[in-house]
Amino acid sequence: MTRPKGLGRVVRTMATRPELWPVALAVAARLAPTRWWCRWPPSPWPDARYWRFRMETAYGGDGDAPLDPDDVVEFLEWCRDGWRRPARALR
Questions:
Q1: Residue 39 lies in a domain
Q2: pLDDT for 6-63, tens place per residue?
Q3: Contact, 65 vs 59, CB < 8 A?
Q4: Is there a domain that residue 89 lies in?
Q5: What total of structural domains would you count in the chain?
Q6: What angle do CA 71, 42, 39 make, to 5 degrees?
Q7: What is the DSSP string of 23-47?
Q8: pTM
Q9: Which pLDDT belongs to residue 5?
Q10: CA 51, 53, 58: angle at the middle one, nearest 5?
């Protein structure tokens, strides 16, 4: 898969949010295909079909919309806040 559209804008936005960097790395690791480094060319980007599905469900259309940096920041904050919540609060 090639680099997702709008990734440059997301990286520039994330540069000003260092508190979200660990969350972003954890999410990126979860999205990367298993043993991505063993396939040629080595690329941690998710499978193109999976990425299109995620973009369709997020933005509608044919899944070709660029990433919205504000949506990515909001998603990462949601992930961070969910990880911080104690497990017993979920019961």
A1: no
A2: 888 999 999 999 999 999 999 888 888 889 889 888 888 888 888 889 889 888 888 8
A3: yes
A4: no
A5: 1
A6: 120
A7: HHHHHHHHHSPTTGGGSSS---SPP
A8: 0.74
A9: 80
A10: 95
